[in-house]
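Q: My collaborator sent me two sequences in one message, no labels, and asked for predicted structures for both. Can we handle them in order? The first one she listed is below.
A: Yes, handling them in the order given. First sequence, followed by its structure tokens:
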Amino acid sequence: MAMMTRTFPLNENVDIPAVGFGTYLISNEDAPKAVQAAIECGYRHVDTASGYRNEAAVGEGIKMGLASTSLTREDIFVTTKLWPGNPAWGDAPKTHEQTLAECDASLERLGLDYVDLYLIHAPSGGPERHSQWRALIELQAAGKARSIGVSNFNLAHLEEIRAAGLQTPDANQIELHPWSQKPELLAYMAENGMAPIAYSSLVPLSTWRTVEGQASAKTDQMKADSGVFTDMATKYGVTEAQFLLRWGVQNGYAVLPKSLNPERMKQNIDLEGFEIDKTDMAAIRKMDRGQGVAWATGDPSTAV
């Protein structure tokens, strides 16, 4: 096999690497070396968020990775996200002006002049969703974000933007894996030119979020079923993680695996040289169990 270098289009000028490096739950202590190692392993997309509280450390890792590989800023695709607020948590929604300021703060922490993709992290901004989205449109026009999008938005949230006559998102980053396939949402996105970006692709693995403090809504039944992809992966001579990531890429999703282990990093981007056959793809389509489980509070796309 070989390193995955495929990309997917976001807009006329921007393509996103098919495999990116996710940084959720990577500590500020670990992030610089982890991001540097990922870049050295061939990753050309690094995904973070203000809500991860590690942007400065991720930015340091990007700087270190560029220096050690002699790459330039233009060689690396960087995503970060606006935390929009959440009234249900006593967290007031960000206003238009606060959204603009939050992007500037993220850029400062990252040590960058722009990001390649800026997302609204969740639809929990409620009455400020339109204001936040208008702010992202301004940020793109100002050159601070080459592409803009949302995360965890459902069909109704996306239709709300379209119905208002606003520019539609370039992408929607959502939880996608064989147990949460969201076919209706993906069909709507395809019809309206919005690219899917998958997070938590490895939910079905028995090793997914087993460290204390890494909460999720993964059920006991799901945990008991975690070996379901062992035989499929063995058939192709790959790890279960490689199989699940390849499933995402084969469906047209950019994926965001995370690891602190350089050897595992290499495996997770080593996705060329095999293709899941039609029989197995059809079998997986029957495994959908509904909403995502990555958030302990439930799938955020269900927000009103």
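Q: And the one she listed second?
A: Here it is, processed independently of the first:
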Amino acid sequence: MQDVTIIDVSPRDGLQIDPKSVSTEEKATLVQMLVESGVSRVEVTSFVRPEKVPQMADASAVIKAVSSFKGLEPIALIPNLKGYERARIHQLSEINWVSSATETFNNKNIGMSIEDNLDQFKTVVKQAKSDGVKTCFSIAVSFGCPYEGDVSEEQVLALVQKAKEAGADRISIADTIGIATPDQVERLMGKVLQIASDTPVAIHLHDTRGLGSANAYSAYQAGIRIFETAASGIGGCPFAPGAAGNLATEDLVYLFERMNIDTGVDFEKLLDAADYAASLSSKKPLGRIRHVERKKIRG
């Protein structure tokens, strides 16, 4: 067994806000390259309203295009019951249900209150268990909100408790705007793990202020073993003003492998996937290691 698990979200979170049109075939190629590098769990798309997030309008087509990839465990983000109804006709290993730690962001992001969101999640959990699909309950803006500012640990921990009681198979804590500091991460994630108990916990990090790797290390020190990242550090949330891309998958893999922590990933193949992810984005990727390693290869 590898020491940590990487979930790459670049086909979804990495591309969702990019104004550059990315074809279904290009998204499928990115997924295939990630799987070939050893990243089996990939968030391939999201079933959101196409008029809100046009880049994800081809969600069904993307899942069909990647359905034959050997070793892939496809994940799709789901914002509401209608999204799940669209997703459940496909073969998914897991759905990622998105919620938020603040009411304002929840309304901006998915158009409902936290309580309504939880009620819908409970319904989805029952249906997903019947369908044989695992559920992840993700809590956005867990360290800070672009609309409400500071977020208390109590707000996050209360949602973790409710997600566990609802039957979530996994819980993910997201630093959506990349504002967390390592001490915050280690403190909060330690408390989350206590409440979650035997429910696996992941952390989803954005690298807006350059602290993504440091925060990942702090999460690891707290006991986190599942990390959500994006190849080349592309991405961001369309409803989080000022948020930059995700922590780069290759940066995290480099960090862990140098520390003799097994990720199960072929680093050179991952660099190829990161190069390709960067080519799909119209924005400058945040990943750092890719540039250093490519210069070393050319030199």
